[in-house]
Amino acid sequence: MSTLFDLVFYVVVPFWALMIFAPTWRHTRTIISSPWIVAPALVIWAIVTVPVLGTFWSMVSSPSLAVITEAAADPAILTALWAQIIAWDLFLGRWVYLDSRERDIHPLLMGPILLGTIMLSPIVFPVYLLVRAVAGRVSSGGSPVARADSVTA
After folding, report:
1. Nearby residues of 48 by Cβ (< 8 Å), 6 or more positions away
2. Can you give the pTM of this predicted structure?
3. Backbone angles phi, psi at 77, to 5 degrees
4. CA 71, CA 77: separation in Å to the nearest integer?
5. CB 1 within 8 A of CB 76
6. Total structural domains within the chain
7. Rounded to whole angstroms, what are the CA distances from 44 to 12, 18, 71, 120?
8. What is the mean pLDDT of each run of 10 residues along the chain (153 residues)?
9. Which residues does 84 contact at the CB level (< 8 Å), separation at least 6?
10. Distance between CA atoms of 103 and 13, rounded to whole angstroms?
């Protein structure tokens, strides 16, 4: 189980590396545009989860701290949860990357944000939303009120 636990991270590293270290390479956007980049992590999730599907289903269909704590003692359940987290973080990072490229947010600013998304997405995602809002104001050359007035005029 330890090998699958480790493998789930390694199968997503190439995608993170593209977004962080080669964000403007013409093939990066093409590769990252596919939602299928999360498939390798989800395949590992399925391999690990199928044998313990009953326990996993009980845990997610009737969650409680006690049930999750007990289930997480099983290495297969913990590995499945890890794979799910890794897949979700990659999907979220994919959205952040694509959105930042559409908004032309500088890659040197996005590198640390994407790295933070890998580590602490619940904290860094709102930070990105703030960066996104500020970048939108700066790129429009005016305040949000000025933009709203120009839209209605």
Report:
1. 1, 4, 76, 79, 80, 83
2. 0.86
3. -65, -45
4. 6
5. yes
6. 1
7. 11, 21, 18, 22
8. 96 98 97 98 97 93 94 95 97 98 96 97 97 82 46 44
9. 45
10. 24
The whole domain housing 76 covers: 2-152
Round to whole Å and give the CA distance between 112 and 107.
Answer: 9
- The answer to whether 93 and 16 are in contact (CB under 8 A) is yes
DSSP letters, the chain, are -HHHHHHHHHTTHHHHHHHHH-TTSHHHHHHHH-GGGGHHHHHHHHHHHGGGHHHHHHHHHS--HHHHHHHHTSHHHHHHHHHHHHHHHHHHHHHHHHHHHHTT--HHHHHHHHHHHHHHHHHHHHHHHHHHHHHHHHHHTS-HHHHHHHHH-
Q: Given this model, what pLDDT does residue 138 score?
A: 74
Distance, in Å, from the CA atom of 70 to the CA atom of 87, rounded to the nearest integer, reads 23
Place of tokens 């990357």: 97
